[in-house]
Amino acid sequence: MRHGKKINHLGRTSSHRKAMLSNMATSLILHKRISTTLAKAKELKKFVEPLVTRAKEDTTHNRRIAFSYLKSKDAIKALFGEVIEKVGSRPGGYTRIIKTGFRLGDNAEMCIIELVDFNELMLKDAKPAKKTTRRSRRSTGKAESVEAAPVAAPAAEAKAEEPSAPEASTEGENEEK
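C-alpha cells predicted for Large ribosomal subunit protein bL17 (177 residues):
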C-alpha cells in the first residue's frame, strides 16, 4: 500500500527524475510554455512554483539555491529577470495546466503547462470582463445614493452646454431664412 506517499515517481529512478524535472523547468522558464503529459506537468508544477516564490527575493543565496535545481545560468537570468517582473505581484499560482487531449501512440493524456502572465491571448480575454453587481431582495439606501451621484454630474455638464446649443440653432435658422 502507498499510505502517505505523495510523490509520483513517473517510472524513473531518483536521479533520472531530478534531471528530467530540471530540464523541463529550464525549458518552461525560457520558453514560457511547453507541451507534455499531464502527470509530468503536475510534478513540474510542484517543482517550479517554489522556485518562482524564492525568486521574488533576489539574493545571492536564493540564486544559488535556484541554480542547484535548474543548473542553467540562462534560466536563472530569465527567472530572476523577466519572469519575476510579470508574476512577482502574485501570491502564488504561477503556472497553468491546459489539457489538450490524448497522444496518438500510447493514448497518454497531453497538456500544455505555461507561466500565467505570459499568455497574451488569455490576458486580452480577461480585460473586457463585465462588472458584476450583487443582487439582493432588499435595496439599501447606500446603493441608490451612489447611483444617483454619477447621474447628477452629467446633468450639470448638460446644463453648462445648453447656452451654446441655442446659439448653434439660431445660426441654422438664419441660414434657412
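The chain has two domains: 14-119, 141-176.
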